């Protein structure tokens, strides 16, 4: 990977984080709404922000200024979740829900803990109902990954779940649509812990992605679907032998607005800050994660299969 792509990824991440910082208040949860009535999209957006910031903290490949911004904003997200107390209340209100655990797990990675929530999760994880969540396969992998981060027992057969995903079936590549594409990316993210453990991706899926990921990236690059394209760039650096797509990084950097926001490629960016936030904060978050992991993997040696050593 050339140094220009590393510099470009750094630039994209720094500018994107600056924009996210400028709209930080829009991630805040409504304090006047009862806990169990908080908008699900608001919870999702705040949890995605905490995930992105947690990965910046985990990888530690950003410059001092960006790292300081990430640390400050991570503390902000923790406060918005009331230092875990909101997640505890949500879990109490709906014991079968898995999203409090999924939201909490990046904080555990950073050693931000809420012990009553952890005790409740440990109790719930021993129930029969915990073993039969009504989720599609890639969502089940998300719960498994969150449980592993939180130190909870895992009852699921990960290999079996993986085979049930779209990616696990290794379908005809031309059958990919936007919905399945998001399923593919998140299957990879959850299996590899967002690129921390590429060897957890089954070898046959690694081979399948090495063959077809460049084709899919080319399609979404040509259509300028920046949101999904950034997710596929992240998939590329979650592989044992990463794929960096330097030319595509050039295109993504060109698409990024001067203020740092990354458009989704579907709707035209609005000058209204709140509308722009609604439509474009997600691709901006994904760009931060993809850029961070691109730099991190570029600085790591390529993993060599054990049989080749």
Task: Please tell me about this protein's structure.
This is DUF6895 family protein. InterPro entries: DUF6895. It comes from Nocardiopsis sediminis. This protein has about 300 residues and is mainly α. It has helices at about 5-20, 40-60, 65-80, 85-95, 100-110, 115-125, 135-150, 160-165, 180-190, 205-220, 225-235, 245-255, 275-300.
Question: Layout of helices and strands, plus pairs?
Answer:
Layout: H1 3-22, H2 40-59, H3 64-80, H4 85-93, H5 99-109, H6 115-124, H7 137-150, H8 158-164, H9 178-192, H10 203-222, H11 226-236, H12 246-255, H13 273-298
Key traits:
mainly alpha, 309 residues, 13 helices, 61% helix, 0% strand, disordered C terminus, DUF6895, DUF6895 family protein, globular
Count helical runs.
Answer: 13
Total count of strands: 0
Distance between the termini: 23 Å
Instruction: Based on Cα principal axes, name the global outline.
Output: globular
Class by alpha and beta content: mainly alpha
Compute the average pLDDT: 95
Give a short account of the largest sheet: none
Strand content: under 5%
- What letter string, H or E per element, gives the SSE order? HHHHHHHHHHHHH
The helix content is 55-70%
Rg calc: 19 Å
* Uncertain residue segments: 302-309
Domain DUF6895: 14-292
Organism: Nocardiopsis sediminis
Protein name: DUF6895 family protein
Pfam family, one: DUF6895
């Amino acid at each position: 990977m050339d140094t220009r792509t590393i510099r470009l990824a750094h630039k994209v991440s720094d500018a994107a984080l600056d924009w996210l910082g400028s709209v930080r208040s829009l991630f805040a949860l409504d304090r006047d709404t009862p806990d169990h009535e908080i908008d699900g999209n608001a919870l999702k957006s705040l949890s995605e922000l905490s995930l992105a910031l947690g990965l910046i903290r985990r990888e530690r490949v950003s410059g001092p200024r960006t790292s300081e911004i990430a640390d400050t904003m991570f503390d902000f997200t923790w406060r918005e979740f009331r230092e875990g107390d909101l997640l505890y209340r949500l879990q109490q209100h709906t014991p079968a829900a898995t999203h409090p655990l999924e939201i909490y797990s990046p904080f555990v990675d950073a050693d931000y803990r809420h012990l009553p929530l952890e005790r409740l999760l440990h109790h719930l994880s021993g129930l029969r109902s915990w073993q039969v969540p009504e989720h599609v396969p890639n969502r089940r992998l998300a719960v498994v990954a969150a449980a592993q981060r939180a130190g909870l027992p895992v009852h699921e057969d990960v290999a079996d779940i993986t085979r049930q995903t779209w990616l696990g079936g290794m379908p005809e590549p031309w059958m990919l649509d936007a919905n399945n594409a998001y399923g593919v990316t998140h299957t990879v993210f959850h299996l590899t812990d967002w690129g921390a453990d590429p060897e957890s991706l089954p070898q046959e899926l690694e081979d399948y992605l090495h063959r077809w990921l460049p084709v899919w990236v080319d399609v979404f690059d040509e259509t300028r679907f920046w949101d999904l394209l950034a997710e596929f760039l992240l998939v590329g650096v979650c592989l044992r032998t990463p794929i960096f797509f330097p030319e595509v990084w050039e295109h993504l950097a060109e698409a990024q607005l001067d203020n740092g926001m990354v458009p989704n490629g579907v709707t035209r960016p609005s000058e209204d800050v709140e509308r722009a936030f609604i439509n474009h904060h997600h691709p901006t978050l994904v760009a931060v994660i993809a850029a961070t992991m691109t730099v991190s993997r570029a600085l790591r040696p390529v993993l060599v299969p054990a049989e080749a050593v």
